[in-house]
Structure formats: C-alpha cells, structure tokens
C-alpha cells in the first residue's frame, strides 16, 4: 500500500506501480524508480512537460471473463482504458494475430464479448515485463506488434474490420493478401508508407470478392505501368468525400491493417455511391448486407457480381 509524503511515494514492493484513471493529462507524470534489490523502494513522481523521460510503453489486453478477478496491478501508468466488443469471427482473427496468448483465454466465443485494452507507460529504467502476466493479462511491449494491435482494437476503422470482415472468406480469396500487396509495392519500388490503398483493394480485404486490380493513391508522383497496381486517376477524386491531401493525411479516412493503410469502409462506400457504376451498386449491396449480417443477401449479391463485366 502506497503512502503519500509530499512528492515521494513509498511502496511495499519494487514491482508495485501507480495507476491513474484513463485519460492523458496535459502534464504527464513520469516515474523514475530506484531499484536496489531490497524489499522496499522509493518511487519519485517527477513532472516532465515534454515527456522525454518516459520509459517503455505497453499495450495490455484481457478478455475480461470475470471483471472482478481479471483486474490486477499492471507495471506502469495507465494512460488509456477501453472496453471493446469483439464478434466471434473477430475473436478468432485476433487470436491468430496475438498468438501465443495466455492459456486461460477462451479459444472461441459464441457471442460478442468484451475485451479490455489498456495503454501503459512504464517507469524510466524498468525492463519490459513478460508477455503473459497474472490473471490472464497479455502485455505487448514490441513496438511493431503493440501499434499493429492498437490500430486494430482502438480505432473505429480497425474495430469495424475486426467485427464485420469475412475473415474465413478473405483467407480463401488470398491466403496472405498483405504479403502479396507488399510484394507488388516492392516490385514497383514504392514504400508502403507512401501508399494508400483504395476501395477496390478494401473490398478484398473484407472478403467480399477478389479485387479486379489494386488501386493506390501515392504521396509522391509515381508511374505504375503494367501489373495489377493502378494509381487512382485525378478525375476519380471527385468521387471521394475528401480532397487528395485530406484523404492521404486524415486518419479518419483510413484503416491500418498489418502495417498497410487502406481507405476506410465508410470512405469506400461514399466513393462507390458517388461513382454509381453497376459494379459499385452491387458492391454497395454486399457492404450493406455485411453490416446487417444478411447472409443470404450477401450470397445473392456475390452471385450477381460474377455475372457483371
């Protein structure tokens, strides 16, 4: 138990931490811990205006089967906490992304169920903890994995993909579509950070149908001739709900999956509504059926799509 004396907190054990309610303060408190190996340690709360003294960052997750028993003292200051509802299909996809997971995590969930996600900042000088913590918590410290999962569970676009995409069908369309896209970019000599994939690529990402071509929008002017990659033409920008700069830079129009950036589901839908071709109309039927979980309408629209030129 911590006892506050002025600006110094005395804690019983060096592994004890200080938690703060969700939300980022304008002036972050950054903790520096003096670890001497003794049973007690002193934690000094030093206010840093620029945040330069922050330690390692963590992303903590638990399926929260039991809200009371799953809560535990985590090794860091909690800066954000969210409870995310995950569909059964999304849960299976998330397990594959996170493997290995704690042994107590359910391998399947019959209904939408909550997932508790916390962002944490550790004290300066502390080493990242083990991946599997007590009471079923999974702690992600690798920056690449941490940000990839955060994009999936903490952003509206990521959660929409997690809960609505046809994950089994998308694997049948292409076992590893992300690797295929990276290969195409590598052949074209374009970095994935410079590219925003368009509505046609997103349709395959969601497992609705196979993309006829891979449409991209690039930050720099590039020439892509031949192959499945196609730069979105300037006369097609009028179909988007935003101009080129806003479309490339505003994260509200994006969904980031496996380190690749696509236009969001809502942006793709607005594009297809405005362009209004026969194939766009059929894609809109599939997108509507996907969100409403009307499986028979989805199959019917899929059959119609095969007959379109």
How would you describe what is shown here?
The protein is α+β, with helices and mostly antiparallel strands. 34% of the residues lie in helices and 22% in strands. It has helices at residues 67-70, 88-98, 143-153, 156-164, 167-173, 177-188, 199-205, 244-249, 265-275, 278-292, 295-307; strands spanning 3-5, 8-11, 29-34, 41-47, 57-62, 77-86, 113-121, 138-140, 195-197, 214-218, 229-231, 254-257, 260-263. Strands 1-2-4-3 form a four-stranded antiparallel beta sheet, with no helix packed on it. Strands 6-7-5-8 form a four-stranded antiparallel beta sheet. It has a three-stranded mixed beta sheet with strand order 9-10-11. Helix 2 packs across helix 4 (156-164). The longest helix is centred in the C-terminal third of the chain and has 15 residues, at 278-292. The radius of gyration is 23 Å and the shape is globular.
Name the average pLDDT: 81
Helical stretch tally: 11
Largest sheet: 4 strands, antiparallel
Tell how many strands the DSSP assignment holds.
13
Oligomer: single chain
Amount of helix: 25-40%
Beta-strand residue fraction: 15-25%
Strand order of the largest sheet: 1-2-4-3
Distance between the termini: 70 Å
What does the radius of gyration come to? Answer: 23 Å
């Amino acid at each position: 138990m911590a006892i506050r004396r002025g600006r110094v907190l005395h804690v019983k054990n060096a592994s004890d931490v200080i938690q703060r309610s969700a939300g980022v303060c304008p002036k972050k408190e950054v903790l520096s811990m003096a670890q001497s190996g003794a049973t007690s340690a002193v934690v000094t709360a030093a206010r840093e205006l620029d945040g330069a003294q922050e330690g390692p960052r963590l992303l903590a997750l638990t399926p929260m089967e039991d809200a009371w028993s799953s809560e535990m003292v985590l090794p860091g200051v909690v800066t954000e906490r969210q409870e995310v509802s995950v569909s059964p299909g999304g849960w299976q996809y998330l397990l594959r992304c996170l493997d290995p997971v704690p042994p107590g995590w359910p391998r399947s969930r019959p209904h939408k169920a909550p997932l508790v996600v916390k962002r944490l900042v550790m004290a300066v000088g502390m080493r990242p903890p083990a991946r599997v913590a007590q009471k079923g918590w999974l702690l992600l410290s690798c920056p690449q994995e941490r940000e990839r999962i955060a994009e999936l569970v903490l952003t509206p676009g990521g959660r929409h993909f997690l809960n609505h995409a046809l994950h089994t069908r998308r694997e049948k369309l292409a076992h590893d579509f992300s690797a295929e896209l990276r290969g195409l970019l590598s052949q074209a000599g374009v970095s994935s950070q410079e590219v925003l994939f368009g509505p046609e690529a997103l349709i395959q990402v969601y497992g609705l149908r196979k993309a006829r071509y891979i449409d991209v929008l690039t930050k720099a002017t590039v020439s892509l001739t031949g192959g499945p990659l196609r730069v979105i033409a300037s006369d097609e920008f009028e179909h988007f709900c935003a101009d080129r700069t806003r479309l490339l830079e505003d994260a509200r129009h994006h969904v980031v999956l496996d380190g690749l950036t696509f236009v969001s589901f809502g942006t793709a839908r607005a594009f297809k509504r405005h362009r209004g071709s026969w194939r766009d109309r059929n894609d809109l039927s599939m997108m509507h059926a996907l969100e409403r979980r009307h499986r028979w309408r989805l199959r019917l629209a899929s059959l119609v799509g095969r007959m379109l030129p």
